Amino acid sequence: MEFSNSKKTILSGVQPSGNLTIGNYLGAIRNWETLQNEKYEEYNSLYCVVDMHAITVRQTPAELRRRTMETVAIYLAAGIDPAKSLIFVQSHVPAHAQLSWVLNCYTMFGELSRMTQFKDKSAKNAQNINAGLFTYPALMAADILLYQADLVPVGIDQKQHLELTRDIAERFNQVYGNTFVVPECYMPKTGAKICSLADPTKKMSKSDENPNACVLMLDSKDDIIRKFKRAVTDSDTSVRYADGKDGINNLMTIYSCFTGKTFEDIEKEFEGKGYGDFKMAVGEACADGLAPLQAEFKRLMADKVYLENLMRENADQASYIARKTLSKVYRKIGFLAKP
Ligand code: TRP
Q1: Substitution site in 161, 162, 194 for ligand 1 pocket (most atoms within 8 Å of beta carbon)
Q2: C-beta of residue 15 within 8 angstroms of C-beta of residue 91
Q3: Domains of the chain, each with CATH number or no CATH
Q4: Which residues line ligand 1 (CB under 6 A)?
Q5: Which end of the chain offers a freer environment for a tag, N or C, measured as fewer CB atoms within 10 Å?
């Protein structure tokens, strides 16, 4: 892609820490594709695979490698177009680690202690509450601020991290003069939050131990249908969107995302029908919606040379953009220029 300094910039990323779910797809990746097209004239689009964030939780090295490559292929298969967007791997661009160290020194212990994701993850990983898990938001701030991103599309669970990024940027700008663009959070209208099929009060998570809780982007049609059949609902019988019907609300959201139908349309369509029929329809719509993407994914994974060339060139381009911000920061904070 051609990066233009006169355009604004959109940046987002997903961790290759598990197999991607339809929550990642409907809540994030699919919206990126829309943004890249609708805002092409106005914005540069950058989409990162954040492998450095993934190691805040213990990963199996071979799996992390495989998933990082697969995530690049999934972005492409989902329609992120390398002619319009820059897809790259975080650890391929050293400036992320470099800026994150600096930002760590401008981020307060108290601020990091208030992050709900840190509290949740440390409760879940009590045996591995490492410093990286704690300073994770400073690395995320580096991802965003390095590229002077204006707009960051994220789900509701990342809003707090984005607000901290804004605070860090403002604090730095206050001390050293205008250095960083202060980014805005961008939340899509629908599908921002897809919930677990096993516990619809919780977000669908790729690291859930229960395999029936999440539908993966690469699941087979049989698996998808089976998982929807088992989805937790309620003891009511009518398909309608209402408070307290978390399971049905979630299924309606998913169905709506894949079919484009409104909740009203869906209520009419399933009037007088049971949950069984509805779940079957959601499963079919989801499987059919993912089929073209899955086929394209398979084609791409068979062409490693293409993927590797793309990653290499894009890492170089991202490094070039990122280094400009990093040099500016190094100069402002008083690091002696390398003679
Ligand atoms: N923390 C984000 C998540 O878990 C991933 C992420 C890392 C990110 N860096 C980012 C998202 C920069 C947007 C912008 O979902």
Answers
A1: 161
A2: no
A3: 8-187+303-333 (3.40.50.620), 221-298 (1.10.240.10)
A4: 11-13, 15, 50, 53, 140, 143-144, 152, 154, 158, 161
A5: C
Structure token pair of residue 17: 């820490």
Tokens of 19: 């197999």
pLDDT at residue 206, rounded to an integer: 84
**Cα(226) to centroid(ligand 1), Å:** 31
Residue nearest to atom 7 of ligand 1 (CA): 140
Strands 8-14 and 85-89 turn out to be unpaired
HSE (side-chain half, CA atoms, 13 Å) at 334 = 2
Span from the CA of 18 to the centroid of ligand 1 (angstroms): 14
Per-residue pLDDT tens digits for 169-192 = 999 999 999 999 999 999 876 555
Distance CA 301, CA 296 (A): 9
**Ligand 1 centroid vs 232 CA: distance in angstroms?**
29
Q: Which residues belong to the active site?
A: 121, 203, 206
